[in-house]
Design goal:
The complex is a heterodimer of chains A (247) and B (312). Chain A is α/β, with parallel strands linked by helices and 247 residues long. Chain A is built from 9 helices and 10 strands. The chains are: A alpha/beta (247), B mainly alpha (312). Chains A and B meet through helix 2 and helix 3 of A and helix 8 and helix 9 of B.
Amino acid sequence: MRLLAFEGVSFSYNGKSAIDGLSFSVGRGELLSVFGPNGSGKSTLLRLACGALRPGTGSIKAGGRPLAGLAPREQAALAAYVPSEPYVPFDFTALDIALMGRSPLLRWWRDYRPEDREAALRALDACGIAGLAGRGINSISSGERQLAFLAQALAGGAPLLLLDEPTSHLDLKYRSAFFGTLAALREGGLSAIVVSHDLRLAAAYSTSALVLSGGRALFHGPAGEALAPELLARAYSMPPEAAARLA
Amino acid sequence: MSSGKAAAALLGLAACAALALVSGPAGADPDIILNIRLPRVLAAALVGAALSVAGAILQGVLKNPLADPYIIGTSSGAMAGAAGAAWLGLGPLSPLFYLLVGGGGLGATAAAYRLARIKGRTSGVAMLLAGVAVSSFLAALVMLLVSLDRGRGLPLLSFLLGTVRAFEPAALAALAAVTLAGAAAAALLGRQLDILSAGEEGATRLGVPVERMKLVLFSLAALLTAAAVAVAGAVGFVGLIVPHAARRLFGPRHAGLAFYSAVCGAGFLMLADALARTAAAPAELPAGVITALAGAPFFLFLLRRSPGEDRR
């Protein structure tokens, strides 16, 4: 089943093209890495995928239905978003953060129910931070904080996760822990689109990859092949030998 | 929200009320307590609660622990309304006074909101900046009126400093209704406010109608603030420090925070007003002077004591 499908999607900001005729799809159990230089359209792709932006031309389908026709609540039930470097000014607990992921399932005046609490705790557990449930989100490490936001995305039960450079500010240990968690979740049947600059790490854990340049797909296929030096050299406009050392 | 903590908070509130009722230069005369102090203590409690709930809402929406009810322009607008009323010779006994103060407060907030709105979105930073600009402009206007009209300037000055006065029962009833409804609404929207305060990007994706919610919450805060200003002038610091203290004591979730801010704010201003009445008796100090004198050091103490939030 296609969880999400882009069909000839183009999008421009005030006449400046950001995504240009892009087609791809994500199926169940697929972990898709999106690579490309800054300004190549990676973040725009994620914003389109979660319905925050509407395509100029082409269509985006989620679960076989046009994304634009879905209510925010239905969109949230299909795909959950993990932000890049979440800053929370107030010291909510990790459990509070995970619980927020249950919000789309509730009417606006309702408080969380016992089953929401259970789902949030299960999500924290799946991310390996069940022991931090009662800790303040600003008193744990940035890697653990990122995992709490992954738990938030999981708690809502959406089959597709959208991650925007989730590991860009983490050290090596947490980068690999984060991708390890993602891979375990994928084996449990979850799908994800990950925008990342961690080419090697992301490719190692992904099933497929999409390389963007100037809003177009330079490559869409098995993750391992995305690291070919000639491909990266073209995408990032750099000499192939430099690309070979990087990837 | 645990029932034990709620009971403790209410007990503390009752203690503050009792203390405020018996303290005063005339001692504990039942007649004075019932007829003179009770309405005033009640007014102080309501003003404190309204400002604190408004502060809790604004700190949440603006994701800024330093936001307070005056930062989005409400207070300056209300002040300008009061100055205009004084210019027209209207005092707190005229219903038109309340209309001008309320209208000024809501009008200034709406102006800041409109100015901060760019391409259908109102960012927290833009709202803060627009609020500061609107505030400064209107505050200068008020000062202009005060300097031009020395005769009426003095009562206006005490209003500017924040003084809980004797009131119209109708104004008190209106303040009570606004405060209770505002606190209840904030508690009901607590879950959405939590999500907004943890990041706007994520809030949309969690099904929160961000712009609509902001409009509702700003209106709510402005209404609470304007109602408080109409009765007591600009009492500073309450709306800034009380939500902070409540958050430290009872946690950051807004459903509980709305309740605890109301309770703590009521207790704090009752005590501050009691001190304002007694400290320099028979002279009376503006309650706003007491809240700032007591509030600023307490605020610094809180900031320095606990790690975690506000320290990034």
